[in-house]
Design brief:
It contains ten helices and 13 strands. By secondary structure, the protein is an alpha/beta fold. The chain has two domains: 143 residues, Periplasmic binding protein-like II (D-Maltodextrin-Binding Protein, domain 2), CATH 3.40.190.10; 102 residues, D-Maltodextrin-Binding Protein, domain 2 (3-Layer(aba) Sandwich), CATH 3.40.190. It is globular and about 65 Å long. This is MetQ/NlpA family ABC transporter substrate-binding protein.
Length: 256
Amino acid sequence: MKKIIFSLSALAVLSSSLWAEKLTVAATPVPHGEILQAAKDELAKKGFELEVVEFNDYVIPNLATDSGEVDANFFQHEPYLDEFNANKGTKLVKVGSVHLEPMGVYSKKIKDLKELKDKAKVSLPNDPTNESRALDILADAGLIELNDNKLKTPLDITKNPKKLEFIEVEAASVPRTLDDVDIAVINTNFAMNAGFIPLKDSLALESKDSPYANIVVVNSGKENDAKTKALVESLNSDTIKEFINNKYNGAIIPAF
């Protein structure tokens, strides 16, 4: 009797996997890809087989979602999405928040921001929202002062007492500038991908009350699709909350 029960259970699992509908999500590898992998079992229970397509890029995942090459993406925050839609004419929409990645300041040359010399070189992400976010961190650290513009660039610096020199590069490339600059302001996913532990290695870290939670995004009109609902429910589950808290030790914070 036990053998029969086991066989029926195995058959049920096999049948479920054979009939599962594929759900394709574009993501950056760390932590988004890792979090998605942790949600695979939750999605399987809902009848979906998750395929994660990884990119080290902040543009292609949105274009792939817009074109229908993937069902959804998970890599960005809402201010970046708003800016992307405005610039590219896309109609991508947020369907859920998952976590916050506090952006941080890193260096291979100094151990404390008090050691930063005059005319030091600082690398920043060059996309509008992340650059503004990076400058806010530097302002909070007392290195610069800024005007009240919503999206800031180095042109919006009103006081720069150390005469810092700013180098703007694509977000994924910022970690590769560390040999050539004094400090770099790096998105947490790229910092972790480069081997940094944000709580341990950053010289300054974004406040936990930041509005830049990372979100799940789909094409307009797909907000209520079964795939979309299953993805958001799985990423907002207790399983994922526990995974984030245990794996990232506070460097990444659940936003649900």
